[in-house]
Fold these 2 entries.
Entry 1:
Amino acid sequence: MFVDEVKVFARAGHGGKGAIAFHREAYIPKGGPSGGNGGRGGDVILEADHDLNNLIQQFFVSNLLAENGQGGMGKGMDGKAGKDLIIKVPCGTIVWRVHREPELPEGVTESEEPEDPTLIPAAGADRPVIRNSGGVQAMELDLSAEEVEDTRSGSQRRDAQKGERVCDLTEHGQRFVLCKGGRGGLGNRNFATAARQTPRFAQPGEPGDEGDFLLELRMLAEVGLVGYPNAGKSTLLTSISKARPKIAAYPFTTLTPQVGIVEYPEDYFRLTVCDVPGLIAGAHRNVGLGHAFLRHIARCRILVILLDMAGTDNRHPWDDYHSLLEELELYDPTLLERPRLVVANKMDEEPAEANLKSFKRRVRKTPVLPISAAFDEGIPAFRKTIRQMVEEAGGADETPGSDTDSGD
Ligand SMILES: Nc1nc2c(ncn2[C@@H]2O[C@H](COP(=O)(O)OP(=O)(O)OP(=O)(O)O)[C@@H](O)[C@H]2O)c(=O)[nH]1
Ligand SMILES: [Mg+2]
C-alpha cells in the first residue's frame, strides 16, 4: 500500500506536577519544604528519513502521543522528563495544521445563517430597491450577494483548503518539533521565603501542545515522467536507472509513483526521475487514476512528456500531447511554465515515423526527441538532454523544495 496523505493527531506530553512535601528527619525538626519539580513532557518530533518512501506508518498509527513528565517527589526529587516521540517521515513531507471545527454541545443544532442586521431586505425577488430621497435617486445593491472571483490557481486553492502549512521536510535528518511538551510544575521547595517558610502549594504541570495535522508527501525528484498509460514510462525508467517498476501491455500497470536514480559514472553525477501513474483526458474529473499522483511531479525541475508515437490502440500522439498539457494545466498552471522535454517513444514500430512527421507538422516549434525505450535506442541522448536541462533549470544539488505551488 502506498500512502502519500494522512491525517494524524499529535499530542506532546504534559508536564508533571510539582510536589508538596516537607523534610522529616530525626533531630531535624521542621526540615522545611522539599517537594521536587515535575518533569517536562516529551515533544512530538518529525524527522525526515531518506530510507522511507511513503507514510504508511502514520496510516496505521495516526495518534502520535508523547510521554508525560513524571510528577515531583518528596526529599527534593524531581520527576523524570517524558521521552520525546520521534516520528520518521520520508523526505518531501509537507505538514499542514488542520483546524478542527468547534464541536457544538449536545442537543444544540447549528442555526441557519445569522441574519445581517445592517442589511435592509430587498423587496420582491432579486430586484434592486430604488429609493427616492429629495429627488435624488439611489439604488441599493446587496454586495454580499455578489460572487467574489477567486483568482487563485487550482493547486493554491487546494492548498488553502488543507490548512496552514507548518513545515516542509526535505533533507535527510531534518527535524521539526510538531508539538512541544508542557513544562513541569515547580515543587513547593521553590516557594519558601523568609516570610512564608511552609508553602503548602506547588505548581501544576503545563499541558503539552496538541493538534490535528495533515502529512502530505510530495516526492523530491528532479525529472518527472508524464504520459498516457502504456506510453512506456516504466520501460524508460528501467532503461535509464536501476529501478524495476512493473511493465506490462495493459493500461495502469503502474499504480504508485516510482523513483529511479540515473547515474553518470564519468563525474559521479546523479539525477532522480519520478514515474507517475498514467494520465488520461478527463483526469481532473477523476477519470482513470485522476490527478491524485500529480502532486509528486509538482516539485520536479523538468517534466518529460512521453508520447507513444506508434499510436497504439488507434490513439493519436498529437491528441495525447494536447490532452496531457490540458490536464497538467487544470491541475496547476505553473506546471506548463516548467522546462519540458517531449519524447517520442516506440520509434521501432511501423507507424511511428509517419506519426512523428504528422506530429511535427501539427505541433510546431516543439522539439521532439525520438527514442525506443524497449530497445535502448536514443537513451544516451535522452540521458544527456535531461541532465543538461536540469542543470539549466538550477542544478541537481539545490534543495528542490522551492515548489511554486506552495503557499508559504
Ligand atoms: N515496441 C515498443 N514497445 C514498447 C516500447 N516501450 C515500451 N513498450 C511496451 O509498451 C507497453 C507498456 O509499457 P510500460 O512501460 O508498462 O508503460 P507505462 O507508460 O509505464 O504504462 P502504465 O504504467 O500503465 O501507465 C509494454 O508492453 C512495453 O513492452 C518501445 O520502445 N517499443
Ligand atoms: Mg508504468
Note: Confidence is low (pLDDT under 50) at residues 397-408.
Entry 2:
Amino acid sequence: MQTPAPFEYERAVTLQGAIASLREHEDSRIVAGGHSLLPMMKLRLAQPSRLIDINDLTELQHITREGDEITIGALTRHVDLLESELLAEHFPIFRDAELVIADPVVRNRGTIGGSLCQADAAEDLSAVCAALKGTVTIVGADGARTVPMADFHLGPWTTAVQDGEMLTAISFPIRAGAGSAHEKVERRAGDWAIAAASAALWIDGGKITGAGIALSAVGLTTIDLTRAEDLLRGEAPSDALFEQAGAIASEDCSPIPDGRGPVDYKRHLAGVLTKRALRKAATRALS
Ligand SMILES: Cc1cc2nc3c(=O)[nH]c(=O)nc-3n(C[C@H](O)[C@H](O)[C@H](O)COP(=O)(O)OP(=O)(O)OC[C@H]3O[C@@H](n4cnc5c(N)ncnc54)[C@H](O)[C@@H]3O)c2cc1C
C-alpha cells in the first residue's frame, strides 16, 4: 500500500493550539519533518485521523545556551545540528552523527523532535542524546514536565510523550572535561546503521568522572550501556579499559538477524564501535 488512508490536516499557529487540537481530536498526530511519519502512513503502519503540522512554530527551532546548559528546540532540523558551531564546540558528537544521517533532503527537513519521538531503535540521535544524558521537556495542557533520556524511550516506537502532549526541547548540561563521539557502520552512504555507538566522557584529574554510552540498531530500542558506564567511572582512560567496555557492549546488546547482517556480526560491530567512540571521546575530552 503506497497511499495514506484519508486524514484531516491543520497547521498549528501556537504551541497551546497544537496541544488543544491533539486533545480534541482522537488519534491525531504531530507532523514535523514528516520523513518518518509519512512513509509509515503510506504503508498504513500509521493511520492518524488528523495531522497537526508544527512547522510554523519557529520558537521551537533553536539551539541556545543559557548559563551552563544548551537547549535544542524540538523543531530544530538535522542541518541546523550539523552546522551549529555551539554544538561542535561542546558536543561534537552531534556533527559526527549528522554527517552520517540520511542525505541532505532528509537533513533539511527532519527534526530532532521527530527523531526522538519516532523511537526507532536504529535512529542515531536517540543514542546521541542518551549518551549525553539529556533531559527532554514535554508540554501538555497542564504545563511542562521534564524526563531524563534514560526514561524517555519506553519500548519500540513508544515514548514518555502521552496523548495530548508534545516534546518541545531537549537540554544538556555543559561540564568541564567533556568529550563525545558517534561511530556508525552502514551498508552505503546515507543508510540506516547496521550498528552505531554514541559515547560521552567527562574526565577530571586524569580520571573518568562520568560516562554515557548508547547503541543504535542492535536491539528493540536504543540500548543504554549502564554496565559499561559503571565500569569506566573512577578509572583512568586507557585502550585496555575501552576494550573491556567494548566487550560489554557486544554482550549487552540484543540484535536480530536481518538484511543488514547476522547477529554475531552486529555484536562484533557494537563492541568495535563502542571502543572507537570511547577512544575518540577521551581524546576530545583531554585536548
Ligand atoms: C531516506 C531516509 C533515510 C534516513 N536515514 C536515517 C539515518 O541514517 N539515521 C537516522 O537516525 N534517521 C534516518 N532517517 C530518519 C530521519 O532522521 C527522521 O525521519 C527524521 O529525523 C524524523 O524527524 P521528522 O521531523 O521527519 O519526524 P516526523 O516524521 O514528522 O515525525 C515522526 C514521529 O514523531 C512525532 N513527532 C514529531 N515531532 C514531535 C514533537 N515535537 N512532539 C511529539 N511528537 C512528535 C510524529 O507524530 C511521528 O510520530 C531517515 C529517513 C529517511 C526518509
Note: The CA atoms of residues 69 and 132 lie 12 Å apart.
